[in-house]
Write a structure and sequence with these properties.
2 domains, 9 helices, GMP Synthetase, Chain A, domain 3, 5 strands
């Protein structure tokens, strides 16, 4: 099992208000502070566009351009932050920082975190990719620590609670690209492990067959260990 370089800290109390934080430090990559138990409220839903302008990331004219692109695009409605990034008006991290500031949450750098694959997989991959959420850890009280690209998506958070069987969410904000990279890593590690196990099973079967075969009937290339090495090299290409 892959363990985090630095474990996500569990010191977060259950929420009875919109956001509650503990006094213990968060994981590596997060700003000073901790993950928060978060329930989006109307007060927290001040428009992201206003924050992007007030922080100087966008001019009012650029915001209007982004809003126009958002409403005119076909297909599923894109989040304003994604439109801003797609138009090259601001970086993904800058938008994530504004979103975290707006919601009173911490921004976490997932490139410095290595969550265990079995923890990440508490949320099925298809669901995690759809809601843009990465599960980082479990808390001693049965809650889960997550990183979300859009913490205001209440329906997505409901899905997280349903699949992880936890109503207590400790949340960080993260960029969508870093969440996607971590999901790919977790599932590729699982697939690699399964592939190696399958190869080992095949090798064991071959060893049994070789033991039963007449002497001299097996070439060097057919030797179990050679087949194992060849298969690993082929899978690596």
């Amino acid at each position: 099992m892959i363990v985090p370089r630095r474990r996500v800290n569990h010191g977060v109390r259950p929420a009875d208000v919109d956001t509650v934080s503990s006094t213990t430090p968060g994981p590596a990559g997060a700003a000073p502070g901790t993950a928060r138990t978060f329930v989006p409220s109307q007060a927290a839903r001040k428009r992201l566009g206003d924050v992007l302008v007030s922080t100087g990331l966008l001019t009012p004219e650029q915001l209007e351009t982004a809003l126009a692109a958002q409403t005119s695009s076909t297909g599923p409605r894109r989040r304003l932050g994604q439109v801003v990034v797609d138009l090259g008006l601001a970086s993904e991290r800058d938008v994530a920082e504004c979103l975290a500031s707006l919601l009173g949450l911490e921004l976490i750098d997932l490139s410095k975190i290595v969550p265990a694959p079995d923890v990440v997989k508490l949320l099925p991959r298809q669901v995690a990719e759809r809601v843009r959420v990465l599960v980082l850890d479990r808390t001693p009280a049965g809650g889960v620590v997550i990183a979300a690209a859009d913490p205001t998506n209440v329906l997505a958070l409901d899905d997280v609670r349903l699949y992880t069987r936890s109503s207590d969410l400790k949340m960080y904000v993260a960029t969508e690209s870093q969440i996607r990279d971590q999901l790919n890593r977790a599932w590729s590690l699982g697939q690699d492990s399964a592939s190696v196990e399958a190869i080992v099973d095949d090798v064991e079967d071959d060893e049994e067959g070789a033991a039963a075969a007449p002497s001299g009937g097996v070439s060097v290339d057919d030797a179990p260990i050679v087949k194992l090495v060849n298969q690993i090299l082929a899978d690596a290409v």
